Amino acid sequence: MFAGHLGELSLSGASVAASFANVTGFSVLLGMGSALDTFCGQSYGARQYDMLGTHTQRAIIVLLITGVPLAFVLAFTGQILIALGQNPEISSEAGLYAQWLIPGLFAYGLLQCLTRFLQTQNVVQILVVCSGLTFLLHIMLCWFLVQTFGLGHKGAALATSISYWFNVALLAIYVKVSEAGRRSWHGWSRDALKLNDVKVYLKLAIPSTFMTCLEYWAFEMVVLLAGFLPDPKLETSILSISLNTMWMVYTIPSGLSNAISIRVSNELGAGNPQAARLSVYISGIMCLTEGLFIAIITVLVRDIWGYLYSSEKKVVKYVSMMMPILATSDFMDGIQCTLSGAARGCGWQKICSVINLFAYYAIGLPSAVTFAFVLKIGGKGLWLGIICAMAVQIFALVVMMLRTSWDEEAEKAQARVQFSDGSITSA
Description:
Keywords: Membrane, Transmembrane, Transmembrane helix. Pfam families: MatE. InterPro entries: MATE_euk, MATE_fam. It is found in: Membrane. The protein is mainly alpha-helical. The protein has helices at 8-33, 35-45, 49-75, 77-83, 88-99, 102-119, 125-148, 153-177, 179-184, 195-226, 232-269, 273-300, 313-346, 349-374, 379-402, 406-416; strands spanning 419-420, 423-424. It has a two-stranded antiparallel ribbon. The longest helix has 38 residues, at 232-269. The protein is globular and about 60 Å long. Mean pLDDT is 86; it is low at 1-6 and 419-427.
């Protein structure tokens, strides 16, 4: 938002950089960290409390190592975008922005691990408090770095990095002093470095990464595709605003997704298949209600929302035209988030990655290209393609849920948390 008021070029550069960073860095760490939803959630349900700390430590090591090559990619964002045929001016601005995001990349990986370590133990309130404090700090940092110190859009990126590290520090302190931390984290363990167990973690973390990234990449790719439309600065800005708005709204269904993932994994780990099944049905009702509410709000604010990002009339008008389409995707995203969360709780990351691959890359992106470039609908067409992908994704996940034998899933979860000589037995 702060970058948007610096001008169209700054907004476009920051938007493309944020999209590129999400595609090549942050979404990868998010996906790899989400494997803890299954490991920690089912271990907690089975009362294997010691293993929560070990799983989390293993994830921290894996994510920090993974972050190194990802940081190199971000360092050369500008050159990569130019090589991909993006506008040189926008690419140059994006490259500067991405470089200032690099410190935050490693903090983001740590944040994913600590968040899931606490969430799977049903420790939620402190996460809300820490996120709220971080948000307030981020707003102040953006104001001072962008406006007062005149760092421009680079200041917004630096504010993001500092905010991530601040959040990590708060959670680390809580883990150190809280009951949940004392119960499940007994210092660093050599078990976290056992090669066989690292392989077991990667067997679930890699599909988790693809499950997450295939979806995230598709959303971000529509922003990059907007750079090839007739008015790339305007189209890129609008698609980035749309994506930013969707991610902002996404925090609500994402919370439901995390909640159902934890509940399902806890219940399956505890050997309560019918409770897991009931949790999925209840969350389905909640996500439908939430999605409808968000969609209505999105439509109601369509004429004023653009002013949060830009004071240029053509940007505000275009955003107003996009909002009804965004309302539809927000509603559908709430449904797929909840279903995907239940799937993570069951450990279905492999099959879900296949579903996402088909939905977004065989259906969604080809539809987006057809709408935008063949039918000449522009940026609105790109987003309509994403909606087509969501429809396919939701249909496949619903079919999976209806055909699930929850008793069998409970048996698989029990097998996953069994240990032999300190090693995990893979389900």
